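Why does residue order matter? Because the sequence determines the fold. Keep that principle in mind as you read this record.
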Amino acid sequence: MLFAESFASSLATGETPASDRLVLPYDARRKSRQRVLLASGEELGYVFPAGTVLRHGDRLLTGNGRVIEVEAAPEALLEVRALDAFQLIRAAYHLGNRHVPVQLGEEFLRFQPDHVLAEMLVGLGCDVSEVEAPFDPEGGAYGAAAHAHGEAAGRGHDYRPTKGGRQRRSARPGPRPASLAGEDSRVQMSLALSRLLQLASPALPVGAYTYSQGLEWAVEAGLVRDQATAAQWIGGLLEEGVGRFEAPLAACLQRAWAAGDIGEVERLNAEFLASRESSELRAETVQMGYSLRRLLHDLDDFPVPPALDALPEVAFPTGWALAAAVWEIPLADSLAAYLWSWCENQVMAALKAVPLGQTAGQRVLLALGGQIPAVVQQALALPEAAWSNFAPGLALASSRHETQYSRLFRS
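Structure:
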């Protein structure tokens, strides 16, 4: 079996013709290590740093000096066309906001089939059709997918404009020591991860542990009485309440902070405050937002923008989204952590109020953690017109908790 662990440098191999082709669809080319069949039927194994994506036209160098050319296989895609360039750019912007791999053409965009995104683009006035074509989406400018960037000087980089004005390199990168490959990206990732863990930690001094969001009344009323009913109550709110309003709103807040769109921040902050259906729920988010704003001021080297202080009342998602944006935490990761923190706080409330045992609490968290990826994906793709905080059970539970005779949690 042939084995490859580096890309063929044009300086090392010159114009050596490829001895075989590796034809794979996009999802297969995203795997950084696997065993595959070449076009000739011969087996090839390869190992690259995690996150490496093979691009159409890449040339792989095997241990015995052979060159293998990568080719994107035709696959089912959705193609977007528009009346003018502005409309196409607008479509690309919205797809980028959903973190969808997109192939850019001079007059089209292509992405993998997704009926939700297709309906969104049709709503924007674009024409969406099914096509069969090779898929070679744009790589992240600084991510592992853009493995052509960052080679040592003197490798013969030639940035020449091609048709349509886009620039492509005439030479593919040569091999790097495996111990150094992706080192910078791993350092950046570890820093963002540590900041994310800090933001999601129960030790974050915002007082979240003092609230039950109506769960304590649900226990008093007998609606939540054991592990199964606790998982049902919390899981239902995660998917149908928090996941369909608070989560997509928090995602839009992070985008707005990152883009410096203060007007959008103010609008979303006011909308979240107005969406709280009881005095208790509103007081909770205002108190936690106030505490988080004070904390950000007290942290060393955290650049608190004047726009945060200008808000008369800060909703908790507004402060959280700012921290995530400043610390450059990937949107999907920050949203998953936000939902995890909410779930963890609800389970902690159930442990005290039901009460539940520690093992039962971990079982509930395990089940909720399994729901979070789908909730994140839905929240990132959900258009604002489809947001909904319709959760009458939560509103009633929170309202009745305000006058509950005996309480552990704040109201």
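Confidence is low (pLDDT under 50) at residues 141-188.
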